[in-house]
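Hello everyone,

My group is preparing for a crystallization screen and wants a predicted model to guide construct design. The compound we'll soak is pyridoxal-5'-phosphate. Before spending weeks at the bench, it would help to have a computed complex in hand. I've included the protein sequence and the ligand's SMILES below. Output in structure-token form would be ideal because that's what our pipeline reads.
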Amino acid sequence: MQFIETRGNDGIKPSSVPFSEAILNPSASFGGLYVPEELPDLGNDFLKEHCSSHYKTLALDLLQRFGIDIDKEVLEEALSRYDAFDDPDNPVPLVEIEEDCFVSELYHGPTRAFKDMALQPFGYILSDLAQKRGENYLIMAATSGDTGPATLETFKNQNNVKVACLYPDGGTSDVQKLQMVTEDAKNLKVIGVKGNFDDTQHILKDLLASEDFKSELKERGIKLSAANSVNFGRIIFQIIYHIHSYLEMVRNKTISMGDKIYLVVPSGNFGNALGAYYAKKAGLPVQKILIASNINNILTDWITTGTYDLTDRTLILTESPAMDILKSSNIERVMYDKFGAQRTKELMDNLNDDGKFQLSNEELESLQEDFAATFSSDEEGEAVIAVYAKKGYIMDPHTATCMKAYEILRKEKLPTVVYSTAEWTKFSTTVAKALGHAVKDDLEALKWVSDHADAPVPSMISGLFSKPIIHTVVVDKESIKGEMLNFL
Ligand SMILES: *Cc1c(COP(=O)(O)O)cnc(C)c1O
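Reply:
Good plan to model first. Here are the tokens for the complex, ready for your pipeline.
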């Protein structure tokens, strides 16, 4: 299958590309994104066939039905990364927390957030492609705390790929920072930036746009790629677990094959939700996808009113930082799918030029056939964490935003999957606070919560505090380019 562009073709780039090209060079014409030409049929027959399939078997078949130009052996090797998850037999467990409400835990990989689900296999595939082509790639990431560790982890010691990761110094949890600065491999560089996440992203954007940086890269024979969810290579792996969760519900007899369910997705860049949308469109029986946000609730506006307006907003820092996002990149892929390339380009041009766009009533109705949305505050999130902790389930602040969405948006009493995108250990100070105990740092919070709530801390988290610090560089904006060129 070929991949095409959300904003149409500019006559310079090829009008369609194979998967390998779309993931190595993810920027499409006019600043658009790559999407599959069509979706495979993953409905009834596919589901029946995989009723008792292992996660990796399901994943391999799904990837092959997309007709991607990656050899089966490479895909198998990539998927074997899931063997290092907590339970190799089931990398994504489904846990019932109350009647009809199931949490799909997407955080059982090496960095304890759902980013591992896609980045683990994706990293292997990208590095393999680079080696086979004899090309060298640089992946630059600006992170608010989850993408950075997962990107470093997947590419460490992989050939032909280097990763430079920028994080806002003081803007991540202690655990997240340690996950980055203790990564020890020659092909990785981690740089703290004096400033917040927004500043960090701007610095990265400026650097990527700078002509002399680009020519320096060219001289060194290095190409740029990306590992955030603008890369379809991430999205394809984020379709699989929605289907897996459905099949888990069939297997545990909550539903019969064909019954409809709700999915609740805590959303920022909308990559996870887009995976759910593709699964639904490809035939998974989903009643609706419920989108949960924090008070940076621009997605709630988009889905409830059709307005997407950046002009009257500033980013607010919350206790669910992975969702502190205003420009949500993957809504573009949904709009392309529903409204076509010409209209998508128009809407995205409006957003770039005027800072906003408005869907028509018809377009809004179409969006609401698949999605409903709401948001919650930090206080509401903490209250949710406390309520479920009492019932014996500890959840992180991102997962907590889902519970209000579950309560108010579930119009019919259908079984529901709530996605848990991070383990509580990444946000332990917030969890401790929610449980009524103020702490000074993550180390104290981890100990207090695990004692108090009888929740284990996995070794990859507890071990961080005694690992040597490898990356100590914290710089201001002016010094980034120099640091980068030194590294390369
Ligand atoms: C990345 C992330 C999200 C948001 O996912 P998107 O695909 O960007 O919508 C939510 N929660 C956590 C913990 C994350 O790391």
